[in-house]
Model the fold of this input.
Amino acid sequence: MVDQSNRGSTSATRDRILEIAERLFHERGYGATGVATVLRAAGVRSGSLYHFFRGKEALLLGVLERHLSQLRIRVFEPVERTTADPLERVFVLLDLYRRNLEMTGFTRGCPVGNLALEVSDTIPAARDPIDRYFASWTREVHRWLEAAGDRLPGDLPREALARLVLAVMEGGVMQARAHHGIEPYDAAVGQFKYHMSCMEDRARFERGEGQASGSRESRQRDRSGRGPNGSAWRTW
Amino acid sequence: MVDQSNRGSTSATRDRILEIAERLFHERGYGATGVATVLRAAGVRSGSLYHFFRGKEALLLGVLERHLSQLRIRVFEPVERTTADPLERVFVLLDLYRRNLEMTGFTRGCPVGNLALEVSDTIPAARDPIDRYFASWTREVHRWLEAAGDRLPGDLPREALARLVLAVMEGGVMQARAHHGIEPYDAAVGQFKYHMSCMEDRARFERGEGQASGSRESRQRDRSGRGPNGSAWRTW
DNA sequence: ACGATTGTTGAATGATTGATCAACTCAAGT
DNA sequence: ACTTGAGTTGATCAATCATTCAACAATCGT
Done:
C-alpha cells in the first residue's frame, strides 16, 4: 500500500487508474461502475489497483481529490482566458457547461454533481471533498463577482449570488439530461441572466447613472439580445 | 406476470413493495439498493416481487410512475391549501423542500432528482418518466405563474421562470446535502426571491403604479424582510 | 363444487461483485 | 553481486447480485 497522501506520486499507473476511473464514474456513476471495468479500461490487473488504493471507496476519494486539484486548470482558467470582464466570465462559465452537455449528447453533466447526490450519504467520507469542490467552485465565481465592484449593488451578498449560479447550473444540467434537450437549461439560465441585468441596473442607479429605469432596453443592453421570435427575453 | 398497465391493482403486496422500494431508492439510490434489501424491508419473498415486476428495472419504473401519480397529492395540493396567492405558493413550495432537507438531516432531497442523475443514462427507459415528472412539476408552477397575471411582466416567459424555480430547488438541494447545512439552499433561494421581487417591480411599473423605483424598499416590500444582521438581503 | 386465475413461497441458479495474496519483475542503492 | 522494496501479476476467494421456478395457497367466476 502506497502512501495515500503522496499526491505527487510519479506513478504513471496510478494516474492512469485515476483518469480512467474519473471518466467511468462520470459516465456510469460510482455504483454502476465495477472495479473490473476500471481495470479492463485501464489495462491494469487488480493487484496494481489495490496497491495504490485501499479499495473502491479510496479510489473514489482519489478521483474526487483529482477533480478538486484540477478545477482551476480545467474549468476556471480557460474561462478567464476567454474574457477579462468578471461578469461576462460568469456567462462564459455557464456556456462551458452548456457546450459539454451538447457535445456529450446530454449524457454527462457536472462530474461532481452526479456523484454528490449518489454517494454523499452512502459514503460519508466522500461528502467532505464534494463539499470542498462546491465551495471552491463558488469561491471562484465569488471572486469574479467581487471584482465586478460597483457594477453590482453594494449590499448584494456576492457569495449568495455565487451559490445561485451553481444551483442554476446544476439544476439546469439535471433537467437537460433528463429531457435530453438543452431547452430547460437555456430557460433557467436565461432567467438567471435577466436577474443579473436587474442587478446591474440597480447598481447603475446607485451610481447615479441610469434614471432608475424599469425599462427593458437598459437592462438588456449588452448580453441579452432579442430572440429570433422577437421576444425581448433571450432564452440563451 | 400481472398486467403492468393495471395501475389500479388492488394488491396490497404490490403497493407495499413500491412503497418500500420508493423509500430505499430515495435513501440509498437505485444501484446501491439490492433487491434482497427491498424484499427484507417489505417482508416479501422474491417470487412475489417478480410476480408483479419483470425485474429490478421494472420496479424502478413502477416507483417513478408512483412518484408521478402522487406528485399533486403529496406536493402541490398541500402547498395550494396553505395559500391562495399564486406567487406566495412558489415560496411555500421551496420552503417545503427546505423543511424536508432539515427534517431528514440533509440525507434526502428530491426523490426524483437523485434518480435523475443516477439512472437517466444507464437505464434509458427511466428517462421518460423522469422527464415527465420534471415537466409535470414545472407545469404546476407554470400555472401559478400564469395565475399571477399582470403581477409579472407581460412578456416574461412563465415557463422559463418555472424551469428556473426547479433548477434553483434541485441545485440548492444538491449543495445543501453535500454541505450538510441549509446555508447554500437559503443563499440560492434568497437570490431567487430577489429576482421575483425584481419581476413584480417591473410589472408594477408596466401597470403604471410604481414610479419605476430601483429603490430597495418597494422591491422587498412583502416577502423579503430584513435579516437579523440588519442586512437588506434576506437569506431565507 | 370446480377449474382457472392470481398470488405466494423459498431454495437454488449462475453471474458478478469487491477484495486477497503468494509469487514474480525490476530498477535503485550499497 | 546482493539486498531492498515498490510495482505488478493473475488465480482465487467469499459474498452478494438479480433472477428463476416448481410447488403450493388463496380467491375468483361459473
Notes: DSSP finds ten helices and no strands in chain A. Residues 1-9, 212-236 of chain A have pLDDT under 50 and may be disordered. Residues 93 and 192 of chain A are 13 Å apart (CA to CA). Residues 2, 11, 13, 44-48, 51-52 of chain A lie near DNA strand D (CB under 10 Å from a C1').
